[in-house]
Write a structure and sequence with these properties.
This protein has about 475 residues and is α+β, with helices and mostly antiparallel strands. It is built from eleven helices and 23 strands. The strands form seven sheets. An eight-stranded mixed sheet has the order 7-6-5-1-8-13-14-16. A hairpin with a 4-residue loop joins β13 and β14. The longest helix has 23 residues.
Amino acid sequence: MKILLISLAFASLSLAAEQAPLRAGAAAVDITPTQFPMNMPGGFSANMAEKAHDPFHSRALVLDDGHTTLAMVVVDNLGAGPDVLNEAKALVAAKTGMSVDKMLISSTHTHSGPSLNTRSEAAAKYYKQFVEGVAGSIIQAHAALKPAAVGAAAHPLPDEVFNRRWYLKPGKMPLNPFGRMDTVKMNPGTSPDVLDRPAGPTDPDITILSVQDAKRKQIAVFANYSLHYVGGAPGGQMSADYFGEFARLMPSRVRGDENFVAMMSNGTSGDINNIPFGSTRPPREPFEQIRLVAAKAADTAWLAHRKIDKHRGDARLGMIQREITLKYRRPSAQDLAEAKAVLAVKDKDAIEKLPRLAQNYAHSVVSAAERPEETLTVKIQAIRVGDFAVCGIPFETFVEIGLDLKKRSPFPQTMVIGLANGRHGYLPTLEQHKLGGYETWLGTNSVQEDTSVILTNNLLEMLAELKKAE
């Protein structure tokens, strides 16, 4: 009898644990730079900003089901590295008790954002502001946890995503920086005299995770779109790009109050941008195209939101993180010799005759040859929120990879986030590596060419494990 009573007691406790209501909290912390001038990284030369056109934020969503507490965070930045994000995660863990492997922090990849290096006084001070702001957003979201319900859906916005890698017409392909001919070119212009056909697909969907409280009041919308960035911010001014403008507009779409947090994460957009190749778009004033795309994205997120039949308060959570060790690419002896020959050219006229960016990439080849490390260890993550799944990849990930993960996922709805927990360059597929082009060059891509296969296989295993746990 005593054994039976103990068994019943444990069963009762287990049932109570299983029935623990889902809780959620969200917060946005302003991380706008205040000291200028500061460089806006993302190009091959300095691009100094004198002020910020619009605010930058770290936006956090924390979910808790009584078993698992996890955070999904979007920061307005070109691509925060693992070191700075690990600092923020450690601060959160010390304050909240959350596990550092239960935090996904992704960057939006705005090209008009601040630097996180510490080589200038302004950047060094911003580094500290960034770490404390990111940590603060998660800590505040954790403190705001309350009973909640979630729902997910997707709706297409195909007219703002374009594959930027193109096959060109015969005789139109220029030499790449290594003096060789690629099969495809990134950003080849819009002239029909040059363009043949795009070298890959697009992902038209805006996918959202909607979070409401017990009274159906909107707590957060976490969105995802496979669009690199828009650009066209005013000269000399920083901007959070369409990601920030989307977050500003979204409260009006779902009747969110001052505590509501909307965030737009960057999907698998390594080969996708906002240039309508093959046609000519009318001229835009500074920031206008950002506004236009953000408004369409907010409308599309609203349409996705309307598709959600029911928000569930019993959604089960799960999160898995794996560390994957990858080999760095190394140049061949011929590659190295050719790079050193390019760097040996000192005559100004001779330099002008070299292929575009030849010396930039020659430096990259030499650096790759001299790199002391043989391997790079990266973090990938898989999250389960009821019947909804999220994958996090720390690269500028090609859209083919995201489409493949969505198709093969065991969950009915899957979101794939790029630039999650770090930024380690581009991640093309094996097939796209064979075609060459900017994203495959040694310098923009630094890890073994089958990395996409390795990461995809691991993520599918992780998703299967999360699905099996139901």
